[in-house]
């Protein structure tokens, strides 16, 4: 009788392991699917935004035209942003000064509390 109970608990434990595996795989694939949907819609949203800004400025934009920003323009914008943000830092003198501590002794670096000092057994 006890062997049947143990067998039933073992089967339940194995089923729980399979359940966890299947659910975790489903969660990973669902997350990947959501990320693919997000990455597929971002370019469409950006082109829609550019077209709407062009319409507001009065520039005629055909509906079939594909608005695309070239790689050279993207590289120039990225380089300009990089140079701008790097200029925000202060220039330093790069001089290192070392001052001696007034108190040379510290119990943290003391060798008398080392591991080799074993207590004497009586």
SS-based class: mainly alpha
What fraction of residues sit in β-strands? Answer: under 5%
Order of helices and strands: HH
Mean pLDDT: 78
Count up the helices. 2
Poorly predicted ranges: none
Number of domains: 1
Choose one word for the global shape. Answer: flat
Helix content: 55-70%
End-to-end distance: 56 Å
Write down the Rg: 34 Å
Strand runs, count: 0
* Sheet of most strands: none
Question: Which helices and strands, and how do they pair?
Answer:
Layout: H1 2-57, H2 71-86
Q: What does this 3D model show about the protein?
A:
The chain is an all-alpha fold and 122 residues long. Helices cover 59% and strands 0% of the residues. It is built from 2 helices and no strands. The protein has one domain.
